[in-house]
Design goal:
The chain contains three helices and no strands. It is mostly helical. Helices cover about 90% and strands about 0% of the residues. The protein starts with a helix and ends with a helix. Belongs to the TMEM126 family.
């Protein structure tokens, strides 16, 4: 029984080492994507806001204050999407990565008890 526990601990640690090594082998472009992904998604939301605003302006036949109407429709979606992306994607991923990092160690400690 003891041999089984120690081999399971070694297997968990080696699997974690393989996953860590694979993550570290990713190209630089894929490392930068989580950092700059919020800007990409934010610009996409701003573009969608501008397109929607343009359609409403054409439907309502607006001729005045076009820039004043476009500015909030570009800035507000960009800021909200950028903030939401950073909160939900980056921080959640960081928490999950931390949890997965210590999962094999917790199993090893639990197996010793």
């Amino acid at each position: 029984m003891e041999n089984h526990k120690s081999s399971t601990i070694k297997e968990n640690l080696t699997i974690f080492d393989v996953i860590t090594r694979k993550i570290n082998q990713l190209p630089q472009a894929e490392w930068n994507l989580p950092e700059q992904g919020s800007a990409y998604v934010g610009f996409n939301a701003a573009l969608c806001g501008l397109i929607a605003n343009s359609l409403f302006q054409r439907i309502l036949n607006m001729a005045q204050a076009l820039i004043a109407a476009d500015l909030p429709m570009a800035v507000i979606p960009f800021l909200t999407t950028n903030t939401a992306y950073k909160i939900w994607i980056l921080y959640t991923t960081g928490i999950l990565h931390t949890a997965l990092h210590f999962f094999p160690l917790n199993n090893a400690i639990y197996a010793m008890i």
